[in-house]
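To illustrate this point, what follows is a protein record of this kind.

___
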Amino acid sequence: MGPRQGFFCKCTFALQKKAMLETKANPNISKSTGLPRKRFYRARAHSNPLSDSHFPVPISPSHVDYSLHYPHFFPSSDQSDSSKKIQFADIGCGFGGLLISLSTLFPETLMIGMELRDKVTEYVKERILALRVANPGQNQNISVTRTNSMKYIPNYFEKGQLSKMFFLFPDPHFKEKNHRRRVISTHLLDEYAYALGVGGIIYTITDVEELGEWMKACLESHPMFEALTEKELEADPVVELLSSATEEGQKVARNGGQTFRAVYRRVTPPL
C-alpha cells in the first residue's frame, strides 16, 4: 500500500467513525437504518430564486473544493494535477433520490445536486454520508451544495464541463408575473449551454402540462439544443429514472398523474 492509499484509508476510517458516533447522538438519524429522518428536514416547497440568500459561493470553478465533496477521489484539497471534474448536475435536487440512483449507474462519474433550501440540502448531505458509512466504497461520487443555480452556474462549472443536467419537477411558478422565476427560460438556457459540452443532455420533466409546454418551447426555440429522437430516448437508461427516482415523481405515479418530458442535446449552432 502506497502512502497516498494509506492516507486515504485513515481518512475514510476517521470519517466513518465520526459518522457512527454522530448517528448515535443525533435524534434526527434513524437508529434502525442510519439514515436521516426526512420529517426533521422538511422545508417549504417553494423558494424565491430571485431573493438574495446568504451562503458561500466559489469565485470560480477552480475554487470549488472537491475534497470536501468527494474525499474518496480527492483526499487532499490540492487537486491541481487532477483532470477529474463534475460531469452531472441535478438542479433543484430535492431529497437526492436521483443522485443516489445515478450513483450506482455511473460509479466513476462525479455528480452534484444544487439545492436552494437549506434544510433540504442538509438532509441530502446527511443521507449521502450515512449511505457511505453503511456501504463502504459506494456513493462516493455524489454530493450536494446549497446554492442558487439561476445565478451561480458559471461559478461552479467551466465551459463545456458538464455532460448531463437535470431539471426534475421544478417549481411551476404558476402566476404569469412569476414566470421569470422559472428555472428553464431562453436566457438561462444560454448559461446551461455554456456549462454543457457539445453532445451533453438536458433532462426535464414535470406533472404540470403548461410548464411542460413552456420548457419544451424554450428548448425547441434555442439554437444550441435539439430534441433526442424516440429511439435515443429508449436507449438512454437515465430516461427511466426521470419519473421514478425522485420523491415528486413517485408521488405523481401513486396518484396516477401524467408527466411531460423534454430531453434535448447540446449542439453547435448553425453558422
